[in-house]
């Protein structure tokens, strides 16, 4: 009987850990290292899209991740012109939050989910709240418009 209880307890803990880490997983096609992203952007002559998010506490962030940022069609289309970076500020992961805090201060982030678009040299050319474009096609259209405007400036 004791063995069964121990097995059940470890199984339950394993499932809880799996579901807790579901929030902490990096999205496929996204980086979490801004410096490396800028290096890659220069090498590939791409811009950089950085999303500042609160993956485990911010309802608009959770919705954007689910409806846009995790979608294969978004990642494939956006990756043609951008290196994608997610900077997360989860309440459930103090280490990650503290690691990203200086970047939120540096870029004066006032709310989540904020997206900043940078050229390959790291110069910001626009920022907006991701939740203004809650569908893949609307978000991609906005990215294209931002690139066109940037090229005119």
Instruction: Give the structural class.
Output: alpha+beta
The percentage helix is 40-55%
Sheet with the most strands? 4 strands, mixed
Instruction: Provide the CATH architecture.
Output: 3-Layer(aba) Sandwich
Write the CATH fold name.
Answer: Glutaredoxin
Total DSSP E strands = 4
Helix/strand order, N-terminal first: HHEHHEHEEH
Radius of gyration: 18 Å
Approximate strand percentage: 15-25%
How many distinct domains? 1
**Overall form:** globular
| The CATH C-level class name | Alpha Beta
Give the N-to-C terminal Cα separation: 72 Å
Tell me what the structure shows.
54% of the residues lie in helices and 16% in strands. Helix 4 packs parallel to helix 6. The chain has 6 helices and 4 strands, in the order H-H-E-H-H-E-H-E-E-H. The chain has a single domain, classed as Glutaredoxin. The chain is globular and about 40 Å long. The chain has 153 residues and is of the alpha+beta class.
Please outline what is shown here.
The protein is α+β, with helices and mostly antiparallel strands and 153 residues long. It is built from 6 helices and 4 strands.
What are the key terms here?
153 residues, alpha+beta, Glutaredoxin, 4-stranded mixed β-sheet, 4 strands, 54% helix, globular
List the helices and strands and how they pair.
Blueprint: H1 2-24, H2 34-44, E1 47-53, H3 59-69, H4 72-79, E2 82-88, H5 94-106, E3 114-118, E4 124-129, H6 136-152
Parallel strand pairs: 1-2
Antiparallel strand pairs: 1-3, 3-4
Helix pairs in contact: 4-6
